[in-house]
Amino acid sequence: MICENIWKWYPARTGEHFGSDEKLKVLKGIDFSISNGDFVGILGASGVGKSSFLHLLGLIDTPSRG
Q: Any idea where the domains of the chain sit in the sequence?
């Protein structure tokens, strides 16, 4: 599997940007490759985009770009 320049953003829904065209960018230019037989772990702090990334890999969601 190869992913190149993957971006994901959502409309801003809270704070000073609510109702504007401002976007919350959760994935910014991700490049990723996995070979057959590889085992991969996705680690990171809360809110950094792990679930968003896995939703894209599992075809549950679509990238905004890439």
A: 2-57
